[in-house]
Amino acid sequence: MKNILLIGSNGQVGQELRQILPAYGNIIPVTRPIIDLGQPESLEPVVQEYQPQIIINAAAYTAVDKAESEPELALAINGTAPGILAAAAKKLGAFLIHISTDYVFDGKHSSPYGENHPTNPLSVYGKTKLAGEEAIRELGSNYIILRTAWVYGTYGKSNFVKTMLRLAAERPEIRVVADQIGSPTWAKDIAGAIAQIVSQLTPEMTGIYHYTNSGVASWYDFALSIFEEAQQQGFPLRVERVVPITTSDYPTPAQRPGYSVLDCARIAAVLGNYPPHWRQSLRKMLAEFYTQQIL
């Protein structure tokens, strides 16, 4: 079986990959302090030690607003480290699978973004993630860059779903931005797609792919759906009113794209089907999360 080095194994997607990937290879999960993307020079010795055939980078600096005040750290993790991983992979003849983001786009398009659409990130986070993509591509090694969006899951410290559930249990009214449009995406679905990719990797697959759950929503739509589904699952909720607001009503340090829906036709052709609809995946995630909460 192939050795698969999984970087960021404690994150939302990383923990899902730890569950599913053993069927596809010998998983080597690494996280800090064994490997620290904030210290990119430490990466190559770890890769050389484990001699993987596949490297999956599920780690990133994802604090979008905090990145505005920590651009150097964000660039080290999101920009410099992926290039070093790509160079190490090339030296070994390994395949690199790297997770990127819809925030490489500016959101001024009005239809789903294809892989070749011009990038124009608005935030430090988006710019550093694009720098990581470019560093990988420039090396000409075997790679898959998988752009995704609005990721949430059962694992990890915080995400939009967990934040909304916490707020809904605490207060009767919640205000949510209604003029940013995207595709909520379950971490478990991303992990499943990566596992399918791993099972059929060939050098000809090298390139950029988009993977999100199907369908579109605003953050407001997403929040309403979370509360509807959570209520049916039995989560204790106090919320009575969800108020739609504009981006300008809720200023943040980082500017976000107003529309960042991704066209997933290319990955659907590889996987043999389109990703499941986001509402269907949300329902499954909440059922799983509820089970964990009551155990």
Kindly report how far apart the N and C termini lie.
Answer: 35 Å
Largest sheet: 6 strands, parallel
CATH topology category name of the domain at 3-152 and 184-214 and 261-276: Rossmann fold
Order of helices and strands: EHEHEHEHEEHEEEHEEHEHH
Q: Which strand order does the major sheet show? A: 2-1-3-4-5-10
The global form is globular
- Percent of residues in helical segments? 40-55%
CATH superfamily of the domain at 3-152 and 184-214 and 261-276: NAD(P)-binding Rossmann-like Domain
Indicate the radius of gyration in whole angstroms. 19 Å
Poorly predicted residue ranges? none
What does it look like?
40% of the residues lie in helices and 17% in strands. With 295 residues, the chain is of the alpha/beta class. It has a domain at 3-152 and 184-214 and 261-276: 3-Layer(aba) Sandwich (Rossmann fold). Strand 1, helix 1 (12-20) and strand 2 (26-30) form a beta-alpha-beta unit.
Please write out the topology.
Layout (H helix, E strand, L loop, with lengths): L2 E5 L4 H9 L5 E5 L12 H8 L3 E4 L13 H22 L2 E7 L22 H16 L3 E6 L2 E2 L7 H11 L2 E5 L3 E2 L2 E2 H13 L7 E4 L6 E2 H15 L7 E5 L19 H7 L6 H17 L1
Parallel strand pairs: 1-2, 1-3, 3-4, 4-5, 5-10, 6-9, 7-12
Antiparallel strand pairs: 8-11
Helix pairs in contact: 1-6, 2-3, 3-4, 5-7, 7-9
